[in-house]
Specification:
Blueprint (H helix, E strand, L loop, with lengths): L4 H20 L9 H12 L5 H16 L5 H8 L5 H4 L3 H17 L5 H10 L8 H5 L1
Helix pairs in contact: 1-3, 2-3, 2-4, 3-4
Length: about 140
């Protein structure tokens, strides 16, 4: 969770290269508990003010979801976890998460756990949010 954009983007490239090696069998294919921490960090970066960080985070999450060593269900589960009320008040975090879930749905269609997505929308009160962008998302 680096504040420096160049360091953050370099770590995203490293993550992508590691996933390629995991898929090709060059590295042992084991589940790491740190993958959920990485996914959570990337989900947090979706609401960053720097567009390059947002785009890189989205691409990395979609890459993780389509990876053979990480199932898209784990990314959907991480993306539908409740956002802290402190982070959701302004609407940016909720709106960015909803747009990401929309991207996931476009990519995976029926592979997305729709019930979890609907529960997330209800839990975050997206239809009642004061930010019109959240309601539209």
């Amino acid at each position: 969770d680096d504040k420096n954009v160049q360091v953050y983007l370099a770590s995203i490239i490293l993550l992508d290269e590691s996933m390629v090696q995991l898929e090709s069998g060059e590295l042992p294919q084991t589940k790491y508990s740190s993958l959920s921490k990485i996914a959570t960090n990337l989900l947090g970066k979706l609401s960053d003010s720097k567009q390059k960080v947002v785009e890189s985070s989205t691409l990395s999450l979609l890459s993780m979801a389509s990876s053979s060593c990480i199932d898209n269900t784990s990314i959907v589960n991480a993306a539908t976890k409740r956002i802290r009320s402190k982070d959701s008040k302004g609407g940016r975090a909720v709106k960015s998460r909803l747009y990401f879930l929309e991207n996931l749905a476009a990519e995976f269609g029926d592979g997305v756990a729709w019930k979890r997505v609907i529960e997330f929308v209800k839990c975050q009160k997206a239809f009642e949010h004061k930010d019109g962008g959240v309601r539209d998302a």
